[in-house]
């Protein structure tokens, strides 16, 4: 799949170079690191801090269940040979039920965190996209690619426009 993406990117770049070769303007390519840009803005820092806080709260919410499970597991290890078969089976069922509760709670909390992430970072991504587009148009860029995008294997640091994007984003805010 990555090889396919690399060929697609290379094909697009070749078409772009060929298509813009007939014009008088040189090809100008920029690279932007979206995560760095978001982390470097005041709104992005606030969003990431809130997400970190929510993650800590989720961990604190699930920790008592995990502790209770570990205690039950230790208790079972200690009493394994003195319990009757029925009591041992019942304890194993209780532990399985606790494990299912923990897994369910973890999935629920993970879903909440994903929704919170989209809610907090979605507007930032849209706003950042607008800034990138405006910077591309104003700066005469042929294209601005995202660092870490599939098919993007190497870029020179001179092509990185992340700091410019951050500066324009902060001016817009």
Biggest sheet: strands, sense, closure?
2 strands, parallel
What is the 3D shape?
elongated
The computed structural class is mainly alpha
Helical content class: over 70%
- Cα distance, first to last residue? 38 Å
Number of strands: 2
The number of helical segments is 5
Rounded to an integer in angstroms, the radius of gyration calculated over CA atoms is 26 Å
SSE sequence, one letter per element: HEHHHEH
The strand order across the widest sheet is: 1-2
Tally of discrete structural domains? 1
Strand content: under 5%
Provide the residue-averaged pLDDT: 84
Low-confidence stretches: none
Report what the structure shows.
The protein has helices at residues 2-21, 34-40, 42-79, 85-138, 162-172, and strands spanning 29-32, 143-146. Helix content is 75%, strand content 5%. It has one domain (2-172). A two-stranded parallel ribbon has the order 1-2. The radius of gyration is 26 Å and the shape is elongated. It has 173 residues and is mostly helical.
In short:
With 173 residues, this protein is mainly alpha-helical.
Search tags:
75% helix; two-stranded parallel ribbon; 173 residues; mainly alpha; elongated; 5 helices
């Amino acid at each position: 799949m990555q090889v396919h993406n690399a060929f697609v990117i290379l094909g697009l770049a070749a078409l772009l170079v060929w298509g813009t070769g007939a014009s008088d303007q040189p090809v100008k390519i920029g690279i932007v690191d979206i995560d760095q840009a978001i982390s470097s803005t005041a709104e992005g820092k606030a969003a990431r801090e809130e997400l970190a806080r929510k993650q800590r709260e989720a961990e604190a919410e699930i920790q008592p269940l995990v502790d209770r499970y570990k205690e039950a597991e230790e208790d079972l290890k200690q009493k394994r040979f003195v319990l009757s078969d029925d009591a041992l089976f019942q304890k194993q069922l209780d532990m399985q039920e606790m494990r299912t509760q923990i897994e369910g709670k973890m999935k629920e909390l993970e879903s909440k965190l994903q929704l919170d992430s989209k809610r907090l970072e979605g507007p930032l991504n849209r706003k950042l996209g607008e800034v990138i587009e405006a910077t591309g148009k104003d700066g005469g860029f042929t294209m601005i690619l995202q660092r870490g995008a599939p098919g993007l294997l190497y870029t020179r640091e001179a092509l990185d426009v992340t700091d410019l994007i951050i500066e324009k984003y902060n001016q817009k805010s």
